[in-house]
Structure formats: C-alpha cells, structure tokens
From TrEMBL:
Signal peptide segment: 1-28
Record-level GO BP terms: proteolysis
Protein name in UniProt: Lon proteolytic domain-containing protein
Domain Lon proteolytic: 153-236
Gene3D superfamilies: 3.30.230.10
A molecular-function term among this protein's GO annotations: ATP-dependent peptidase activity
Protein keywords: Signal
Domain of life from the UniProt record: Bacteria
Protein's organism: Streptomyces lucensis JCM 4490
Length: 263
C-alpha cells in the first residue's frame, strides 16, 4: 500500500502510530511523586493548640526563640502522575520529582503507609526522649516527656525534638536559651545514643524553613551538598553528626564565640 503513496503521504501514515504512542505516554500514569516544601512546627511551642513537648517530673524553663522541625509534602501514593505532570515540575526549584517507591514503599496501601509513618514517628519520639535525658544525665524513671505533633509522620523530626527537650529542661546549661532568641530550623533522625542520621528532601526543607522565618538550619553533615543546591538567601547551614555537635554549635552561635561548622 505504501508504494502507491507519495513520500509525504507515506511519512504521514507512518507517523500516525508514533503520534498515538506519544499521546498515550503523555497521559499514562507514571510511577513518580512530586514533593514540595511542607509545614514547619516550633517544637518549643504549640501545634494546633497543643504543646508539642510536655515534661513532668522535672522543672522546665521559659524559652525564647524557636526550634522549627521541617517537612515536605508529596503527592499521595495513589495519585496519578502523567508525563505532563512530571515535565511541568522537573525544572522547578520548589518541587522535586522522585520515584514513588523512594517516597512510599512499593505495594503498600494508603492506610498501611500512614500506619508505618506513625510508627516511625513514635519510635523517633522515644529515641529523642532517651537521647535528651541521657545527655542531661536524668533518669527516665523520674522524668516523663510527652511529644505530640499532629498530622506528621516519619522519623525526621528526631533531632529537633531532642533539642527542644534539652532547651526546656536545661537551655544552654548556663541560664541561656539554645536558640539565642533566633528561629532555628533543621532536620535529622536521632538514635538513643545521640547519633544524627540523614533524612532526604533537605533542599525543599530549607525553603520551608526560610519561608517560616528561620535564619539557621541544622542539617545532617552527609546532606550538606543537597542542602546547598537550592539554599535560600539568608539561611545559614550548620552541619551536625551528633546531638553533642548540634548543641555545641547552637551554644557557640548564642554566645558569639567558638567555632561554628559550615557546609
């Protein structure tokens, strides 16, 4: 049949399947999620009318400044992402296109994912409490800490929870605030021994932090490069590897002396 057509007609006929394929690909669901800067919350204050940190069994102190944990928001695990959606967000600095399996475990339902994230948050809160009390040489049998943060899951607030507990109980250790009156933000997991772990999404979290007034951002040292990639103007990066290094850096910032590490 093609031999009886002109060259232009033949090209047009051959192009039809290709055009159809491209059109199908443009609207077919793809295994990606799109993330953006999410909410932040001051762990020294309240979230949705409820104190984030409540301590019993030990005297607490009045604090100034803020310690803001940061989040990212991603399209849901059942969201349908087309080629157009992916292409439209690929080059935006306030968006990140990521494989869905890197955001949500493959095969999990929405309820299973929510349950998993809630469990990670509880484990993070327990680790934060143990790390803070160990740092302050306080007994977990006598001092009880209740942490509440609505609608947030995962382990990435661990470091900020720990710093918040320390600031409420002991401040900088000499009567001052860990924040020095500043708005400090950050991210990072924590284990009971005080080791800080990487979390992902830091380039978006720095944007959320600066949007909500932070001037200093605590970042796991291994993620310095990612944090620098889209760093907002006016936000200072401070890399940390342990709880001790985070406290030391904040005290040095507060007192204006001593070495403060940078990415």
């Amino acid at each position: 049949m093609l031999s009886r057509l002109t060259r232009s007609q033949a090209v047009a006929v051959c192009a039809l399947p290709v055009v159809a394929l491209i059109a199908t690909a443009a609207f077919a669901p793809l295994p990606f999620s799109v993330a953006q800067p999410g909410m932040t919350a001051d762990v020294l204050g309240e979230n949705k009318g409820t104190p984030v940190i409540t301590v019993s069994g030990a005297a607490t102190r009045k604090t100034s400044g803020q310690l803001r944990m940061t989040t990212i928001e991603a399209t849901g695990p059942d969201a349908q992402m087309s080629l157009g959606d992916v292409a439209g967000n690929w080059f935006r600095t306030d968006r990140a296109v990521m494989p869905r399996d890197s955001v949500y475990p493959s095969g999990d339902t929405v309820k299973e994912i929510e349950k998993h994230n809630a469990a990670q948050m509880r484990e993070s809160q327990d680790a934060a409490t143990r790390a803070a009390l160990k740092y302050l040489n306080l007994s977990a049998d006598k001092v009880k800490v209740d942490l509440k943060l609505a609608d947030v899951g995962g382990p990435s607030a661990g470091l900020l929870f720990t710093l918040g507990i320390i600031d409420k109980l002991d401040g900088d250790g000499s009567g001052g605030d860990l924040t020095g009156g500043r708005t400090i933000a950050g991210t990072g997991t924590i284990d009971a021994g005080g080791k800080v772990g990487a979390v992902g999404g830091v380039a978006l979290k720095t944007q959320a932090a600066r949007r909500d007034g932070a001037t200093v951002f605590l970042v796991p040292k291994a993620e310095c490069a990612d944090a620098r990639s889209e760093l907002p103007e006016g936000l200072r990066l401070v890399p940390v590897t342990t709880l001790r290094s985070a406290v030391d850096a904040l005290v040095s910032l507060e007192k204006g002396k001593g070495k403060v590490p940078s990415c």
